[in-house]
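Entry 14. Two folds queued back to back today. First construct below, sequence then structure tokens.
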Amino acid sequence: MSSRPLLFSLTMGLAVFGWEPSAQAQSAAETQRRLEAAITAAPLVEPAPEGKALRDFYRGRQGQAAWSSATAEALLREARALATAQGLDPATYALPTAGSDLDGDVLVSATLLRFGRDLAIGAVPPARNVGGFGAETRNDFDGVRFLKALAEGKPLAEQIETVSPHYVGYVRLRDGLEKARAIAVSGGWPTLPDGAKLVPGETDERVQVLRRRLIASGDLGEAFSEGKTYDGPLIEAVKRFQLRHGLDPDATIGGKTLAHLNVPADARARQIAVNLERWRWMPRTFGRNHIAVNIAAQQMEVVEDGNITMTMRVVVGDTKHPTPSMNTTMSSVVLNPAWRVPTSIANKEILPKLRKDPNYLSSSKLQIVDYPEGSPESAGDGVDWNAIGKKFPYRLRQPPGPDNALGQLKFNLTDSDDIYMHDTPNRKAFGRSYRALSHGCVRLERPVELGEMLLGSRWQGKLAENISANRSTRTLMLERTTPVYMMYWTAWADESGNLHFRDDLYGHDRRLMTALERARTPAIRPATGRTAGAS
């Protein structure tokens, strides 16, 4: 008899001991199913990485909800305000309707995750056709860490400062966006009517409109608001405007200047916003020594120890042969380079010229490398160019010399799709404001100075002399491998906060605006395997 209570108590203990974990396991499994269903149904732009981040975040919380209603509302309200200031569409971060408390919590997390990700690495991939270095160059974003910090009560603004770009160029342009939007909200600036060119000294009814236009953009002081005569203060204001827009500062209001004057303020704000997106694609650091080419501005800067030590104009690819944005390196320079003519140029340009002028190879100092140098065959003698189809059947080379298309120097770039930086015998192009004239390579205004700087102090003042004294083709290694960034900026702010704009040469801005529009509303995916409790 004495054993029965003990047996009874053991039986009851085992029953209780077995029942509690089973209930917990069922509850945990149900929570996990509901979480999985909610994450699957959430409107994620990149389901694989974002879904993983959400799963890891909630796993770290043992499946517990992260946000109270008040906290979620405050965070999302602040996110939309911060998004506006950063050039993102605040409507992107409005919370979709959720079917349950758990669904709602996941949607809040997904929305905050997306906001952090958009600011850290960009809302759309950095494809080359929108001015990026290529989708594979995208930075990493630790979404779990970002969400965990917010769930611990750390301020959203503080976390945004942590993940968004720290470049001074980004901060200046972000401040410029605020100015541009303020102008747009206040009514923008007036449109200058079409008409004959306006030149200094003229008296014209349109001058009064021109004054108001330039006052609105900050190029002319309020004290000069009256007058129909194109006078001195207005001349200087127009020159400032022209310089900010990459135009010849001649103070003449012709077609190009008029077109820039009449771009609406809200359009300039959108242009700033797409360039802010490009900043979010940039590497975490450029390094204290590098070369930066702004393709849209057709300008190059050399940065040494964090300071700009050289600037020059460059020629970039024309609209049919755009210079690609890229993140690459430069380690060598070729003196007195030969030019091997790309097949595309031989097919599309040289063959049609030979059909019109059979002596074109000789006059252009081009040689067919399939034959001995200097032979009649190497000059194309006896070839019936009209009998040849669309494809040029030979390889062409232009030997070193003063007329060589690459000039005296060619700077090699690593993995650059046959794009390089080089000298050119055509110096007139550097005097023009529009310099999108090449087949994709970057022509340099002062290549010898650049070579001397990159080769080191022992070459300064001696490179040009060395090239002239020795006409052979030689490759020299630079003093150090230098990072090269070819970027597509159509809007930026200088150290004084003045906004600068350039034409969208290749249509990258237009395509990026479209991509951003499409990315704002991710498709809501079907909630595969959702349980009744998660509805």
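Second construct, same run, same settings:
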Amino acid sequence: MAHTAHTQFTVLGPVTVVTGGRQHRIPRAQTRGLLALMLLNLGRRVSREAVIEAMWGGTPPSTARSQVHNAVTVIRGRLAEIGAPEVFASDPSGYELLVEPHQVDAARFDERVRLARDAAARGEAKEAVRLLRGALDLWTGEPLADATGSFVDAARARLVERRLTAVEDLADLELDLGRAEAIAAELAPLVDAHPMRERLRVRQMTALYRSGRQVEALQTYRVYRNLLAEHEGLDPGREIAELERLILRADSGLATPQTVAAPALLPPDIPDFTGRDAAVDDLRKLLTDGRPAAALAIAGVAGMGGVGKTTLAVHVAHQAAPAYPDGQLYANLRGAEAVPLDAADVLARFLRALGVDSRAIPEDVVERAELYRTRLAGRRVLVVLDNAASEEQVRPLLPGAASCAVLVTSRARLTGVEGARWIDLEVFASGEAIRLLGRVTGDDRVATQPADAAEIVRLCGGLPLAVRVAGARLTARPSWRLAHLAGMLRDERRRLDRLATGDLEVRASLALSYDGLDGATRLLFRRLGLFDVPDFPGWLAGAVLDGPADAAAHLEALFDAQLLAAAGVDAAGQIRYRFHDLVRLYAQERAEIEDPSQERTHALERGFAAWLGVAERMAAQVPGPCYAAIGGSVPRPPVDWPLDDVDPLQWFDAERAALLPAVRQACELGLDELAFDLAGRLEKYFDIRGMYADWNAINTLVLGACRRAGNRLGAAVMLRGLIDVVTWNTTPEGGDATTRFHTDAFQLLEMFTELAEPRGMSDAAVMCSWALTAQAAYPEAVDYGTRALRLAEESGHKGGEARAHVALALARGEQLDIVSAIQHLHHALAAARALGNPRYESAVLQFLGIAHREAGDLDASEQRLGESLAISHRYRDNYTKVLTMLALARLHLRRGDPQARSAAESSLALGREYNMTHHVADALGVLGEIELAGGDPERAVAYLEESVAMWRTRGWLSFLAAALVSLGRAYAAAGSPAADGAFAEAQEIATRLGRNGSGQ
């Protein structure tokens, strides 16, 4: 680009190329238009499509590409002809002009205007005038005067707007320098050329008035008023109308301004300001760099009380102050207090700061606002409106001049303030909060006690006000270790008391927001704060307020007051909300003060019951164990949220983090009926997602609560699910899993029998049958399986029928009656499909695949296992997948297929991940058999010894016997004398099972 330095280009008049002081035209108006387009897009590569769009709009000719190419060729040829270097760079992606900004008159104009404004900001009015006049001298006529193209009219209008704005800036400066007569003469032809531009008229009227030409100034106004009425049907704007009024009464404020000190009302910057880098950059750009030339810049900061809005605004205002040399106005509007400041009072204060004598300040608020805007016209003043209450309070305080800017803070987003760009201020991340704590304390305690510092800011919830209070307390007590303050803050009931020092108090800050709410919204705040959940769906508001139609409005009022934060839209499409930890503590504190205990409990009951009602509906659609859905008697309140077409698993995924603590809180409050019913609706979800630790913990907790309350039905339902988890997903500390399974299953059957609950009795009888099969009591297992089937059929428990047939198939299969087992499994499959439960269908298909393998039909086995695996993948169901992979591994092993190893290894990995002890033991056995078949008895022994050890904890005799036989073979192949012992123990178990031979 350095080669083109001696070449200049013009667009602020005709489009020309200048070399050696001589102007050269480019042939054809359209070609000049293409050159102008590129000159106005310096530093950017413009695609061929964008060029065509700019030149012809939406209707380009079929030859558009070739015409563009020809125009570029013409420009290159003309430049070469006059001795100018090549400036076009092109490739398949488009064109770029290799020209520096200082070579283009429009870019030089913009740079000089920018420098002029910087000079004005420094108070160098004469230098600013010099620069502006130099910029305006670059104009030689109508911009892009001899160029054509669809883009030209809009580009010309933008350039003219930049010129007129510069003229208006120049007029303001010249008027302040007392040069009214000269500027009045300069403005006359421009006003004639742009008769509808009000800002030019204002400056012309001011110049005429200050030149002693009051009558001409008023005539100018009347001409404008008539033009506006005739052509637009409108009245003049307030600024020019107010100027006419002031001229009529010869207001002293219109005289050439005397030297008045620029207002500097900003509070001092915060010396320990910390973090907020992105917010500071965004606000500074809004107030300085990123401003549209013809619009008032308004930046807004919204956030909860104590989050640091004022601190940020004052800090940014000090940084932006050099760009506003005519002063900075500041007012705390007290928007969170019971009686916010009246805009009229703020206007009076601002007017006095702007040099208006108190006696000249109008009484009427509208007239004050008009005078305020007049005083700010043409000045560069930053207005900071801190802690605003509403749009109505802010609007009268907005300048009319685009040369000014406004920074507003509020606890609510004041979206009705036109043109404002808002940022939402969140609490500090841990690192920022720790840095703030360290800067406030001013010593090395934070650096040397990092864990305790992290705990303090965690307990403060990252709220800057709370962190600052904590730091102030530490500063006042240099002997305290951070652990001491952290210990004090852990007491939730006293935490807000301890986050107060001097005039800094978290509780007081929150109280300002709370007191500004109406009664119903305050009630909702207190009731929602009772729930110890990380977040919650928006429909909970209606439940805790007993379903009023305007619950959503009260919820939004809490959100607008920054007492509640939006947590986003979850996977089920619900809008979720959350409390800051300290806000929740304040809400609970207010509830304890204002609401009787029974009302608080009632609100919690309704909220939990609303969750239960939705969970009940969703759980019915979750595939999983075919237990009977046995619930409690708690009424389910209606929920104002469309439940149709919601994926139930997505709903449970979204709600899990709230449902688990909700169940725990219900237990703590003695709401056992709610607790067991809600926990019961989670069981199928726990199972399909492999959340066995959560399932175990929740059912154990609720079982204890039900037993303490004497809730026998709840205790039975919780024990039923707990038996499954404990049996298949835990390792017993003493004894074996099957023995405990047997004891618990028969206890459960007794409990449901006492309750006369036939569906529960069927579920329990199935468990008894499984336990008896594991202990080789096959006739009794068949009896209990048959009993379970009868109870299920009589009570219409279709899932119980499916489970009973599987139990009977298992008992028959262990008796080596494979034909009967397959018949029962086909009945189970039909029942599972009739129930619409694909997950249990998958489980039945597994057993069918295993049964067909034992019957020697390997193709049928593979087909059934493949069908089961497809369902597992569909539901991300790793539990069912483990057993399918195990069955496939044994199938591949029987066929001699090398896939056996990968299938067994996958089963082992998943089994260990989900603590599926039974399946881990089985997978180890399969891998041992694979190693033995592959001729590596030592590796086989390692796998099989671990498998046998695990089977001893399981207590399932047939599996233990098979593992002992495999281990004996591995020992024998390795030449170990331990083989005889393994075979002997296997023979003893086989005898108990009624089978002949050890399987050697």
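Quick look at the second one. Residues 737 and 954 are 5 Å apart (CA to CA). The mean pLDDT is 86.
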